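Same chain as my last thread, 245 residues:
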Amino acid sequence: MRKLFGYILSPIHYICFGLLLLIFHPIQWLCFNAFGYRAHKRSVDALNFFLVCSYYVLGDIVTFKNEQNLPEGRPMIFVANHQSLYDIPVLIWYLRKYHAKFISKIELAKGIPSISYNLRHGGAANIDRKDSRQSITEIAKLGMRMKENKWSAMIFPEGTRSPDGKVKMFQAGGVATLLKKCPEALIVPVAINNSWKMVRYGQFPLNTFLSMTWEVLPPIEPDGRSIEDLLKEAEKGIKKKLGQG
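reply #2:
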């Protein structure tokens, strides 16, 4: 039955999603070029609020939980499992006050209304996965921006999306580069549950009437510990929250 509703509701969702990207593209351009970073960021935040609202067209429910007393004005590295592209607008909107910047594939930095513009001008690290030197350099630049501006970063250490929701082993490379340039950053795990079900049938039809959660877990102080230990602790915490531990 959910799949049947998906055939009916997915086109409406995609029309809403696409229109939002088209509408906010010139708004972003105007905000960035006329008023600078802060105005541009507010436009991106607003865009992602409405993108999250478009999930409700499918009958899907988004729940974001953050019971942690996270510090403001301190760089953080949000470390999350990755289940679908629909993870991202939720994280941008609900973590907006921490200025969390993404590490993204360079291919996404052109050709997509609103999204590509934000990746080029919003402070993200756009990496070429075929060029390890370029990738490290871009992530290092993000680490320096974090240190200078007290921004945060959002990283998916699995390296790719999980098609069935099972958490894959976390890779240390990106986090290690960020911490090298911004050693004062706090590690903050985020557990994402059920967003993979949204695309369990592929991009069409999208799944309907789901309950999806994003939950911020207790932060981890680096305290000179090895990157491997930090990520193992984050991975273990996320798996436990998802019932996979």
